[in-house]
Amino acid sequence: MRSLICIVCLTLVVSACNRVEPKLQDIPAVKTAKVVSADEGMALVFASEIQPRYQSDMAFRVGGKLLSREVNLGSRVKQGDILAHLDPVDLNLSAKASQAEVASLEADYVYAKAELERFKQLLDRKYVSAAAYEIKKNAYAAALAKLKAAKAQAAVSLNQANYTNLIADFDGVITAVNVDPGQIVSAGQPIMKLARTDALDAVVNVAESQIEDVRNTKYIDISLWAQPDKVYRGHIREIAGAADIASRTYEVKIQIDNPDNELKLGMTASVAMHGRNELENSATLIPLTALLESGQHAAVYIIGADNHLSLRDVTVAQYREHDAIISAGLKPGERLVALGVHKLRAGEQVNPIPDGSLFASDAEPTPDDKQ
User: Which CATH number does the domain 44-53+197-275 belong to among 3.40.50.300, 3.30.160.70, 3.40.1550.10, 2.40.30.170?
Assistant: First the structure.
């Protein structure tokens, strides 16, 4: 009997020594998801670009050789500032020629007027015929018409001489420069772009399946990718009436209500359009793959602080294409298993994969892995 007891005790001791604790790599790795509020999760998010509401192609009204450019790309200008100059020599000569033509025709006009008055006196005394008087009268009318035409042409030439300076029509910033000094430009050729900075839009392209949701937007948050913590509010200003031929999307312009100096033209921003959610404020949103059947109810696996699973019943308010709206059972911020829920059991320990990772190898290395 003593020998049997010794053998049993020895066996227990050996078994205890050979017992191996489960390694971390034997614990199933699971993809997790964070529970978010339905309003936050159902927002339509688009990438956008900050663009000016008003932008003009600045061009000379006359052609010529570009003599100098006073501004560069990114320069800020005020209304009335000179942006560029054309060589004024030819235009000044044209203006002088027009003025000389006016002086010559004024002399002809004065002579024709004097001749008309003299022939009028002679006609009254019957010294000349009515036909001769009519000739002088027509000559006077022709001289007057030529003088008016010459004065108008002289005014045009003078204006053209003044058009050699390109003037800023409003305060803004230069967003594009197309020519350099020394180039020959034609009238109306874009020299540079001038954009106003007091009115800015966030421009997004929306698919045709999302247009109605965009129209029903309740409020819009705009955050710069360079400064994600700062949020601007905006509202829809314009929706394109027709889809783009190439992308088949609709351009939507969102006016930024509270712009500041941090906003720069061309910046990339994230636009979140929050819809009119009629659900209760406690409604949450989870991935559709996180749901499983538990009796007569839907359920999810909640990951505790010790990475052990607990099964919790939830109430599904609406099934969507990729997610589900939960009206009861969950709170925003809780973490649950997003994939592979049918292979798990309550109370089981899991190894959560960090957010944004798709492979267990991206998780924190285990002590054995480090060895």
Answer: 2.40.30.170
